[in-house]
## 1
Amino acid sequence: MNEITMKLNADRLIMQALEEDITSEDITTNAVMREKQMGEVQLLCKQDGVLAGLWVFERVFQLLDPETEAQFYVKDGDKVKAGQLAGVVRGDIRVLLSGERTALNFLQRMSGIATYTHQIAELLKGSRTRLLDTRKTTPNMRIFEKYAVKTGGGYNHRYNLSDGILLKDNHIAAAGSVKKAVEMAREYAPFVRKIEVETENLDMVREALEAGADIIMLDNMTPEMMKEAVDLIQGRAQTECSGNVTRENIDKVLSLGVDYISCGALTHSAPILDLSLKNLHQI
């Protein structure tokens, strides 16, 4: 998920967020600011972290008024410190006031994800294991949250259900067995698609291997069981560790030699990065 893709898809979602916040008017702003008046406001960092979503932040104001301009002193992926001035936004004060919360909601959420992702990605440095996100995203925020993961140093798993084959426990139950599920997926899917199978024990790992799965997910296994599974697979399929992986426990799987670690916490549990628009004044 890169900035070009974001720009192709983001406007509709940003407008929905604005419409959620401004159903008919911003009654408070219209009460205190009756006419257009140009102004400037500062974007301040209140915590240390990694920024992500500056373009989205700016775009909120531009959709309200194309003449709004933002000047940033940092870029996406940069580390910032508490108290740092990240940029200024200039435009009609009515637009600055009405767009403030929506713009900050996007930037704080995305920067929080980038910050948390960066913290975990740093723990993987020096290993061959890659950090992946999941589809455990906020509804209608996936494009922004997955972009934030990449900005923080992680990698994107499949974007949506059309993007890849992942045979989970209920798919396997519906098909009748791991072997049958893989056979049906290989028959149905284009040959360019890899097939991933979620496994919960060593018997399922063996069955997935025999069926020719391309990627085997080791889901909610103990570190000891995952080690046995990796030794059993011996590079015949790529391996992905999944299930309640967080910053606090990731060290337990680092030495196992898995190819990927998927972490739903990147998007469903990352706290926001505290940012603020302050010192609004007329210009």
## 2
Amino acid sequence: MASQNTSTASKKLPLISIVIYILTLISAILYFAFTQSPTFADWFNSNISNIGRRLMAWISCWFPFSGAELLFFLIIPIIVLLSVIGWKHFCNSNRDALTYVGILLSGLCVVGILFVWNFAAGYYASTLDKKLGLEREKSSANDLYQTAELLADELRELSPAITFLPSGESVMPYSIDEMNAKLLDAYDSLSEKYSFIDNFYSRVKPIMLSEPLSYTHITGIYTFFTGEANINVNFPDYTVPYTAAHELAHQRGIAREDEANFVAFLVCMESEDPYIRYSACLSVYEYVISALRSADKSLYSQSYSALPYDVRAEESAYSRFFEKYRKNVVANVSNSINHSYLQSQGAPAGSKSYNMVVDLAVAYYRPQFD
């Protein structure tokens, strides 16, 4: 009896794809459990997800470049390669074509599995105000004004230690690697105060395409599928330490944007370095003063006009920088995608949730109000 020609034999879904689909089902069940129980989400985020995040961060630290950015460059060649493989080896029948589609989909499922096991629980864990013992409530105009004043006091103390260019921009006095080391020291110190703050060695990754990325208004991004905290280094220096601390917060399981913003503030303020503290104070001041402007223009003008001249010059310089990127289709599309993603993860405010750091800042400073 003649043996069957292997070139025409029907292809079967490989075992690895079957295993991936089983893990996908388990992941879907886990995700549902997160949405139903903050207690379970807390436990999973602190005891299971942190292992995956640490492992991914450790692997990514071996490469000085951003693996996520490399994947972006390779996406078209990968698509072409997969198309060629499909055409050469899976075109004998419709069944073979469906098998190949099943293999490709299992590959995409890996991304979903990594998301659920390494990051998703943070969106449904107990809120940061509860972990910090803060009373978070709706902020009045006076609350915003007093918070802005306390932040402005910090800026007045810090600005003499900052180097400003004649054009108004401040200058970060060290490299990205040195900044990274200072932030990790601050995370180490903060983790001793709050047990939910994970601490381990990692490195932020400057994005090579930072200038084009600026048109999307993205200053940084944590890529859970590579475990990397990526930062846009095209933006003015004063934004970089705070942005890096924000992405490092995501890397440590702080998923919600307002909470990552506030953890970044706490981390930077834990640092002994004046520029890192300045970065955090000015960044959060901008959120608070923007909310105050909407609530009470008179109090806004009173607060902003009292800022040190150098700080106001920094703000003017930023406005000039950002004008080039302010309005474009790419930014609108990017914001819409991010808005929809955040809403899908239990944040009704979507991309506006970044601004909700204001309520956390007010709750934090309220005990110091007059």
## 3
Amino acid sequence: MDDKSIMEGVLLTTKGACDLYLHATIESSSPETHKVFCSALNETLCMQDDVYNKMAQKGWYQKQNAQQQQIQQVKQKFSAGS
């Protein structure tokens, strides 16, 4: 297994952990539990960002900027429902 494959696995795992922590935070029944899961979510989001940035630096994850027209279309789509 090469480094890129390992990093892809780490990225997918951290994304999955973020998803789980988000739902756990939302569903927390006490302020203490909410605080613990929220903290874990924030830490995991930072880890995911670090992994993503390292992969992008190596050219393994291509960044793609959205065109201004696409941004405006999405804004219009979601503001129309308000």
## 4
Amino acid sequence: MTVFLSASPEETAKIAENFSKALHGGEVIAFKGGMGVGKTHFTAALSRALGFTGTVNSPTFAIVNEYRGGSLPLFHFDMFRIESWEDLYSCGFFDYMNENGVIAVEWSENIENALDEDAIIISIEKTGESSRKITIDGGGF
């Protein structure tokens, strides 16, 4: 487990960029943290570090956004409204496991029982207006 202290959105993006260097495909990143702590910001920086050049938005209503065109595809899930195993299957979550990309899951607390023990847990805590405590557990961190 590694803990990072970020004083700004730019520092958080740099942490995501450095984290991306350890990814090779097949990882599931489970984000934990409340509304507005920077889960989507971290994912956007991660996607840019992987080579995606488009816009990254929260998939709150789409459930999943795909970011392709970089060194690895990134599948960005928002599980805020997922309430059952049926919801999880219907959004295609398990199908993406076979894509050999990186899966980033916001609101992973809602699907904890479906996550593999190898999932990388990234907890983000707001410590100030722009500062964050980012804890990465798993994946060699």
